[in-house]
Design goal:
The mean pLDDT is 90. The protein has helices spanning 4-18, 21-24, 40-54, 69-94, 100-119, 121-137, 145-151, 153-169, 175-187; strands spanning 190-191, 196-197, 202-204, 210-211, 216-217, 222-224, 228-230, 251-252, 257-258, 263-265, 269-270, 275-276, 281-282, 291-292, 297-298. The chain is globular. The protein is built from nine helices and 15 strands. It is an alpha/beta fold and 302 residues long. It starts with a helix and ends with a strand. The chain is 44% helix and 11% strand. The strands form three sheets. It has a six-stranded mixed sheet. The chain has a five-stranded parallel sheet with strand order 1-4-7-10-13.
Length: 302
């Protein structure tokens, strides 16, 4: 039987091996010692706090009522401001080194971004309520708006997206993508924070939906499970590396429905009022009002 001394020596050897920077290679992120690092745990708290502010009583403390609403929102806004400022700073510092003066500038920028984000929450709630209405009106099995907020993955995924998209527009690196991936893990819905999504947006069931970075989605759009709004190809530079930031995902105009497992690829436009049937592969523009099915393209009745 191994002695305690032998076990301790083995553990010390493992610790030394795991602490060797060389073994990390490209995985190790070089930055100033002591600078904050993004935290998935803290970002989960930020998402939960934001949901609790946007939908009080449905997330977090379930005993909120009209008499205590302002108190609970006030407490949560203060907590959100502190947590978000810290994580935004971590995102700003993740891009590289910062001396003492630069760090102070980034701290001030993080505080301003957090304040600007929180100022958008009333408008964000208004838009999310349109998403709740869209999900309710699109599902005859839904019994109430409350059921939609509490149970439907579309609201969790889309609320994360609207949080992440707002932070991305405010110039926050990395953090928005981490928030999107929290929703991906929770719901199976993968929406890049760069995607632009209009009002009254609904995803029925949701599992397996993928929406790419440069996708643009209009108002009153409904997607079903398994839908992909993806890129058709990746143009390469002279060195053979993918060229970043090109518009490469679909534009989906107002009042479009895309049924389950449809794949829509490339910078194409799905015209207003079009219907994309299930299990189809679409790589060309679809005119306004057209219906695309597996076996045929059927013009909508005039």
């Amino acid at each position: 039987m191994a002695t305690q001394k032998t076990i301790d020596a083995k553990l010390i050897s493992v610790i030394d091996a795991l602490s060797d920077f060389g073994s990390l290679q490209n995985a190790y992120h070089h930055t100033n010692d002591g600078l904050p690092f993004p935290s998935g745990t803290s970002l989960l708290e930020i998402v939960e706090l934001t949901r609790e502010i946007l939908f009080p009583g449905y997330f977090g403390n379930s005993f909120v009522d009209s008499n205590t609403l302002k108190y609970h929102i006030g407490v949560n806004v203060e907590r959100l401001n502190a947590c978000l400022s810290e994580q935004v700073l971590a995102g700003l510092c993740f891009d590289g080194y910062a001396d003492e003066a630069e760090l102070e500038q980034k701290k001030e920028k993080a505080r301003q971004i957090s304040s600007d984000f929180i100022s958008q929450l009333p408008a964000m709630r208004s838009v999310l309520m349109t998403d709740v209405v869209a999900a309710y009106n699109g599902d005859p099995a839904a019994k109430s708006f409350g059921e939609i907020i509490l149970c439907y993955p579309t609201i969790k995924a889309v609320s994360n997206h609207r949080i992440a998209h707002a932070l991305l527009k405010l110039g926050v690196p990395l953090i928005p993508r981490m928030i999107s991936e929290l929703a991906h893990s929770e719901t199976g819905i993968d929406i890049h924070p760069g995607a632009t999504i209009g009002e009254y947006f609904a995803i029925d069931h949701g599992t397996g939906v993928v929406i790419g970075e440069t996708a643009i989605i209009g108002n009153h759009v409904k997607l079903y499970q398994g839908v992909t709004l993806g890129a058709k190809s990746f143009p390469l530079d002279a060195d053979g590396n993918p060229i970043k930031d090109l518009p490469r995902h679909p534009i989906v105009e107002d009042n479009v429905v895309v049924y389950c497992n449809a794949t829509v690829l490339g910078r194409i436009t799905i015209g207003e009022g079009a219907t994309i049937g299930g299990n189809v592969w679409v790589t060309n523009d679809v005119p306004k009002g057209e219906k695309v099915f597996q076996s045929k393209v059927q013009q909508s009745s005039k």
